[in-house]
Amino acid sequence: MVHIGTTELIHMQIKRIEKEIRDTPYHKATEHHIGKLRAKLSILREKLQGSEKVGKGGGTGGYAVKKQGDATIILIGPPSAGKSTLLNRLTNARSKVAPYAFTTVSVIPGMMEYKNARIQILDVPGLIEGAEEGKGRGREVLSVARGADLVVILTDIARIDAIERITKTLEKNGIRLNKDKPNVNVDKKLQGGILIRSNIKQHLDKETVKSVAMEMGIKNAEITVNEKIDFERLIDAFSANRVYIPTMSVVNKVDLGQSTSNNYQPPNTNHHSPHTLFISAEKGIGLEELKEAIWEKLEFVTVFLIRQDEEPSEKNPIIVKKGKTLHDIAEEIGTEFAENKKRAKIWGPTAKFPGQEVSLSTKAQEGLQVRFV
Ligand SMILES: Nc1nc2c(ncn2[C@@H]2O[C@H](COP(=O)(O)OP(=O)(O)OP(=O)(O)O)[C@@H](O)[C@H]2O)c(=O)[nH]1
Ligand SMILES: [Mg+2]
């Protein structure tokens, strides 16, 4: 008798459903059915990741790294792309570099200092085909990636196609790159079934949205869909394990001289202005541009705090996310500090005049000097 394990069984079910989706023509009458199938598929894929985690030694191990600094970025790329070389260039770390694959076998952290920010960079083993099935150290790399604030996909000039492959691998594992979280609110209830609301004209009808939700295990809820949505984003909205992380791509070893055309467009990116940088980690080409691009991508600004009894200066810098308000900043300093602060005085490039008094709903801008009053 042939023994079929759970994993094989799930693989077979996935194949069958994928085929059924391919074979079913898409129109209004089948939309409902296809929605259900796609939801089933998503659950099976998740199960697969879960089932493969058990027993094959994946998941745990020496991969827990403490996040440190203002942000954590991970360098993901094929073996020998130059990840460790780059880490060593940008930080104080000394990760082993060698001309063969899988030189790095664990997570090596380093700290990059740039514009008053401390940015943690994680160097991990090369990511190869089949990573999500545990090939190489794939699963560990993917789990570290989930916790990062920015994914830098690093490949070399001879393997530009790796960008697309790695993007797909990350997406397949629930890591959404350069995408906002779906604007869908799921308010779970104890009873009453599923109620769908939307003020936007949708492609998908309410019954379809409802059955996708049910298929994903939602029984009672008020669901408000605030964007024009497709199946993929709908399923994302109902899944617990999705993460949304910005990404950028970097092509290393430009010193080797092949095509360095800057018009290469990375795949699967959207309105968040994708761009690919060309560098040589070894020769130090393009590294300043890379640091600046990382900074931009993290959407950081530097704000200077001015104490009550001090003249405006750039002595006390703090790093905050673009779009944060002065109120958010006060809260970050401490709840006690924020308690009796109602207004602020500002200096710097965005102040109308030095010492302008503003409300705490004012947004942080690069170079802003602020004294809370
Ligand atoms: N020509 C050239 N070689 C480079 C450059 N950067 C790295 N290398 C070489 O590429 C090889 C691999 O570099 P590593 O930094 O070990 O690559 P890695 O991505 O960390 O590799 P793994 O840890 O095995 O995944 C080494 O021989 C480096 O010297 C570069 O900019 N130009
Ligand atoms: Mg390495």
Describe the secondary-structure layout.
Elements: H1 6-23, H2 28-53, E1 71-76, H3 83-90, E2 108-114, E3 117-123, H4 138-146, E4 150-156, H5 162-172, E5 175-177, E6 184-188, E7 194-197, H6 206-215, E8 221-225, H7 231-238, E9 243-245, E10 247-252, E11 276-278, H8 287-297, E12 300-305, E13 317-321, H9 326-333, H10 335-339, E14 343-347, E15 356-359, E16 368-372
Parallel strand pairs: 1-3, 1-4, 4-10, 5-9, 7-8, 10-11, 12-16
Antiparallel strand pairs: 2-3, 6-8, 12-13, 14-15, 14-16
Bound molecules: guanosine-5'-triphosphate (GTP) and magnesium ion.
Magnesium ion (MG) binds next to helix 3.
Write a compact overview of the structure shown.
The protein is of the alpha/beta class. It has 10 helices and 16 strands. Helix 6 (206-215) links the parallel strand 7 (194-197) and strand 8 (221-225).
